[in-house]
Amino acid sequence: MDLGLKGKSVIVTASSKGLGKATALEFAREGARVMIASRSETDLQKAAEDIRQETGQQVQYTVADMTSIDDIKQLVANTVDAYGTVDVLINNAGGPPAGRFDDFDDEAWSKAFELNLLSFIRTIREVLPYMRKQQNGRIVNFASSSIKQPIENLILSNTFRTGIVGLSKTLSMELAEDNILINTLGPGRIATDRVAQLDQIKAEKTGQPVEQVKKQIESTIPMGRYGEPAEFARTAVFLASQANTYITGQSLLVDGGLVKAL
Question: What DSSP assignment string belongs to 171-240?
């Protein structure tokens, strides 16, 4: 199947490691011109070089804090300067702190909102003029399996990830006339640093070895294992490709069957 991504301009945020980096790599494999972004220039340099070596494709980066409107504007401007437009936006952001309702004050709630929902709104706002002009675009918003089933001890994430679903669904109706498709993609237990951190937190809380925590969680996944970042990334790339012409406003999980909700 031709995904129609060769030469396309793609922004992937929070992409110096984890799911973002894996997704940027898969776009590069398909011949897309990729702009990666994160707060760490050192990590970005390494990620860009890793992707170039593996694919031979052009990869550029922008240092950007996704809670900064100025950084977001600069990220999009740099992409347009380098590649002429923006064809695809992959919205991604690191997860907020774990914890229960009583653990967080107004400042923590505000920070989580700014990082995990407002950053998506701002980035979409910046790329839409280019997508509307060309009457074509793809946006995929990374969320969490909590968009279908809340995850214990992650109240901040559970709240704002579901906000992404409302945003995406509403925008799918507003943007369809411009042939801009937007979807939400939720990872289940994918083997990333973030998931390893959550496993460690649970291990410390329960007094169990982290290996035992992982085995217990794997036993609840029908596939019997954590997913690989590339498995998640390939789904994101399809949704953001020109092979996808009729899927919009949907919320899809890549979770090995972990979530039992319909």
Answer: HHHHHGGGTEEEEEEEE-SB-SHHHHHHHHHHHHHHT--HHHHHHHHHTTSTTSSPBPHHHHHHHHHHHT
Taking each helix axis as running N to C, give the angle between helix 69-83 and helix 119-134, from 0 to 180 degrees, rounded to the nearest 10.
30
| Number of neighbours of residue 80 by Cβ within 10 angstroms | 18
Residue range 9-188+228-254 in CATH 3.10.180.10? no
Q: What is the DSSP letter of 97?
A: P
Q: Are 220 and 258 in contact (CB under 8 A)?
A: yes
**Angle in degrees, CA 225, 15, 176, rounded to 5:** 95
Tokens for 31, please give them.
């011949």
Q: Which residues make beta-bridge pairs with 139?
A: 89, 182
pLDDT tens column, 58-93: 899 999 999 999 999 999 999 999 999 999 999 999
Q: Round to whole Å and give the CA distance between 48 and 60.
A: 7
pTM over 0.85: yes
Write the CB contacts of 65 (distance below 8 Å, at least 6 apart in sequence).
39, 71
- What's the alpha-carbon Rg for the chain, to the nearest Å? 18
